[in-house]
Amino acid sequence: TVESAPRAPSYKPRIGMTMSEVENSGWGAPDEYNRTKLTTRYGKTECWFYPRYNRSLCFNDFDRVVTISE
Fold first, then answer.
1. Would you state the pLDDT for residue 68?
2. Along the chain (70 residues), what's the average pLDDT of each consecutive run of 10 residues?
3. DSSP letters along the chain, please?
4. What is the pLDDT of residue 3?
5. C-alpha to C-alpha distance for 17 and 65, rounded to whole angstroms
6. Rounded to whole angstroms, how far apart are CA atoms 21 and 27?
7. Residue 16 and residue 31: Cα distance in Å, rounded?
8. Residues 41, 37, 9: CA angle, nearest 5 degrees
9. Given CA atoms 63, 61, 41, 49 in this order, what sign does their dihedral have?
10. What is the pLDDT of residue 62?
């Protein structure tokens, strides 16, 4: 018997997800990310960029998604 390759998750990132959950989502690892922690109303954030989806998302100090932008 031939085993099929595992299928990639089809769910999209959502507000409140962890970095790990986003990496395991249908979007996968980011194409680019801002290593510099930015100070915003959410505290210090790290932003990931997905040009292939024309989207970016930012995480707070607790590694949770706080924004998803076009």
1. 93
2. 59 94 93 75 82 90 89
3. --PPPPPPP-PPP-TT-BHHHHHTSTT-S-SEEEEEEEEETTEEEEEEEEGGGTEEEEE-TTSBEEEEE-
4. 59
5. 5
6. 10
7. 21
8. 90
9. negative
10. 80
